Amino acid sequence: MVLSLAKTTVNEITGEERTVSLREKSAENLIAGIEASKNVPFERVLFGLGIRFVGETVAKKLAKHFKSIDAIIIAKFEQLITVDEIGDRIAESIIQWFANPQHLLIIEKLRIAGLNLAINEGDQLQIENKLDGKSFVVSGVFAKFSRDELKDTIEKFGGKNVGSISSKTDYVLAGENMGPAKLEKAQSLGIAIISEEDFLGMIN
């Protein structure tokens, strides 16, 4: 079987249409990209919608709380503000975004394309509650994981990532080349400084 796709372009000056066949490898790559998008987890799809004030962290919290796009669409203002870190401004932005019929049409196109618009039972955002209620500052360079991977793991186990060290911080997850100012502040506040290995021991 020969795999082929075609791309049609229009000359802006003459208006002439030209159809160009894509090579088999290019077609395979395009189809593979479409199929891969179906494996993107719900929170990433939600973030990708571009709703104002809904960043990666807020998208994860929305996905975790409501479990599906349909539940978010019908959520009332009072329901939205009960979600951690979602205040009046974010709640109003979410309601306004889904009130736009064009945006609802986008959702339906994504649904037809097979993207994840709900949390799959086998792909829960929060694996366990081992870190429930604990806040972490991640700083430095790590051997086994990137900082983003560590932050994702913290959230999956119920923890919370914070950007700066304060008296409310529970742990500083420190890698190589951690800033001396952060280290000094953590020590002065008596905050536990843990290594990558210590962290893995906590969740295992």
Mean pLDDT across all residues, rounded? 84
Query: What is the top-level CATH class of the largest domain?
Result: Mainly Alpha
- Radius of gyration (CA) equals 22 Å
**Number of beta-strand segments:** 6
Low-confidence stretches: none
Beta content comes to: 5-15%
Q: Which structural class best describes the helix and strand composition?
A: alpha/beta
Most strands sheet: 4 strands, parallel
The shape is: globular
And the CATH topology of the largest domain?
DNA polymerase, domain 1
Major β-sheet strand ordering:
4-3-5-6
List the helices and strands in order.
Answer: EEHHHHHHHEHEEHEH
Distance between the termini: 48 Å
CATH superfamily of the largest domain: 5' to 3' exonuclease, C-terminal subdomain
CATH architecture of the largest domain: Orthogonal Bundle
Level of helix content?
40-55%
Number of domains: 3
- How many helices does DSSP assign? 10
What would you say this structure looks like, in words?
By secondary structure, the chain is α/β, with parallel strands linked by helices. It has helices spanning 24-37, 42-48, 56-66, 69-73, 77-80, 88-98, 101-113, 147-156, 180-189, 196-203, and strands spanning 5-10, 17-22, 135-139, 160-161, 171-174, 192-194. The protein starts with a strand and ends with a helix. 46% of the residues lie in helices and 13% in strands. The protein contains ten helices and six strands. Helix 2 packs across helix 3 (56-66).
